[in-house]
Design brief:
With 310 residues, the protein is α+β, with helices and mostly antiparallel strands. The chain has two domains: 175 residues, Ribosomal Protein S5, domain 2 (2-Layer Sandwich); 125 residues, Alpha-Beta Plaits (2-Layer Sandwich), CATH 3.30.70. The protein is 39% helix and 27% strand. Strands 1, 2, 3, 4, 5, 6, 7, 8 and 13 form a nine-stranded mixed β-sheet that branches. Helix 6 packs antiparallel against helix 7. It binds (R)-mevalonate. (R)-mevalonate (MEV) binds next to helix 4 and helix 5. The site of (R)-mevalonate has 12 residues, from helix 4 and helix 5.
Length: 310
């Protein structure tokens, strides 16, 4: 019986999370941590040996409409769920890639990224296509960056928001991830920012400032100015903290990393999850993160997006 195995990478966000939900710019890089989905046709849909349950498997429940028959689904992951590293996007992208090959639909990356985004949007509530586009495309992407800031890939819109996705070339640089070990669901954190922003002009101004910080970061990246980029990442962390999406554990890991880094910030939705540090002393940053109780790893970027595994 035919079996298809596909994988897709997680991501880190250099600048722009949360504000990107409201159409502001953001930059994300795919990382060398992946989720693999193996699918084969079956008489009923199972996930890792158990009958699919809509409550436990909301993403698969939504995405099964792309398959013409029930499936046996098996997953392997080296991205902790709720770590801020794009596990749900990688799950959606790898599953949809496997199903498109199984169905011979020759789905292109634009359609794959749109379908994966709609899965996030349906299950998680308000979301941007940042994580799913990074997972489908791989390498580096920007959303709503200035024209000419990278090769155009595709547009994705929902309701009043539209995002233009571009491929971005990133200079050689080393990032360390520090995982707090705290699981934080994205949906409630996005909702918390939305409520704050709708109620208070101050929060809305902070979202605008995150957008401007990201534009400045894109300029710094295009000039290869790592020092400036680091400063902007640290500034972004402060702005995200004002929005209420950081926490003590993240602040501690950011603080200790800054001693040996150009800049550091939370990455992803926050509330736990992970932080990143831009550094040329990765071992020192890893040691500092470990001593503060985090789990560090030096991340490799420039990895390929969703694809079939032989
Ligand atoms: C989560 O990785 C990034 C957020 O901006 C949500 C989203 O863009 O969908 C917090």
């Amino acid at each position: 019986m035919r079996t298809v195995r596909a994988s897709a990478p997680g991501k880190l966000i250099i600048l722009g999370e949360h504000a990107v939900v409201y159409g502001k710019p953001a930059i994300a890089l795919a990382i060398d941590r992946r989720i693999t989905c193996t699918v084969s046709r079956s008489s009923e849909t199972t996930v890792n040996g158990r009958v699919m349950d809509a409550d436990k498997h909301p993403y698969f429940n939504h995405m099964m409409k792309y398959s013409s028959s029930p499936l046996k689904i098996e997953t392997e992951s080296d991205i902790p769920s709720g770590s801020g590293l794009g596990s749900s996007a990688a799950l959606s992208a790898s599953f949809l890639k496997a199903v498109s090959v199984m169905e011979d639909t020759c789905t292109d990356n634009r359609k794959l990224a749109t379908d994966a985004f709609l899965a996030e949007y349906t299950v998680q509530g308000r979301a941007s296509p940042l994580d799913t586009s990074a997972s489908v495309h791989g390498n580096g992407i920007s959303l709503n960056g200035p024209e000419g800031s990278g090769e155009y890939l595709w547009d994705i819109s929902v309701n009043e928001n539209k995002w233009t996705v571009r491929d971005v070339r990133i200079p050689e640089m080393t990032m360390v991830i520090g995982y707090t070990g705290l699981h934080a669901a994205t949906g409630p954190l996005v909702e918390k920012v939305r409520r704050y922003k709708d109620k208070c002009k101050f929060a809305s101004d902070i979202v605008d400032e995150i957008g401007q910080t990201t534009v400045d970061g894109m300029n710094a990246l295009s000039k290869g100015d790592i020092v400036k980029l680091g400063d902007l990442m640290t500034r972004d962390h402060k702005l995200l903290s004002i929005l209420g999406v950081s926490c003590n554990e993240l602040n501690k890991l950011v603080n200790v990393s800054l001693r040996h880094s150009y800049g550091a910030k939370l990455t992803g939705a926050g509330g736990g999850g992970s932080m990143i540090a831009l550094t040329d002393e990765p071992e020192k940053v890893c040691e500092a993160i470990s001593l503060r109780g985090g789990t560090p790893f030096i991340v490799k970027t420039g990895v390929h997006g969703a694809g079939v595994e032989e």
